[in-house]
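Reviewers of the previous submission asked for a worked example of the structure-prediction workflow described in the proposal, so we include one complete record here. The input consisted solely of the amino acid sequence. No template or homolog information was supplied to the procedure at any stage.
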Amino acid sequence: MNGWTTAATVTFAGGVGATVWGVATGPLRRRVVAQNLSSALACPGLLLLAQGYDRPSYVDLALVLALLGPIGTLVFARLLADELHEDPPRALLATWCAAGFGAVVVLVLCAATGPGRAMVKLLVIGVLLVGGNLVASRALAGGFPGSHRG
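From that input alone, the workflow returned the following structure tokens.
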């Protein structure tokens, strides 16, 4: 076990374990935020495993998760707009912490990988991960100013 796999284990055990508990219990506002944060934490975990095991296919899986995770949250935000409007989620700190963690993991992996195609792929994943989850979190919190519920 090396440092990369240890960091991935901590990420999956701590972060994703907590979000699974959040999805399984509590009010609707906590469940949708936990669903959004699960993809924001699972993606960096997969990137760390890809580096630790030297498996580029895990990076492809992280790319798909970084793209589809926020889209799934946006679908939930649209379908549950009426219920979320009555009791909107408030998870600004958790969202920014997850986005910051994803950005740090991507930047560290870019430094470890060096210039090339793999680094460009990591940067694309980082932009999708951080940007997508911030947009999805904002949509859960009531949408954007000037739009009608989402």
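The chain has a mean pLDDT of 88. We consider this example representative of the routine output the project will generate in years two and three.
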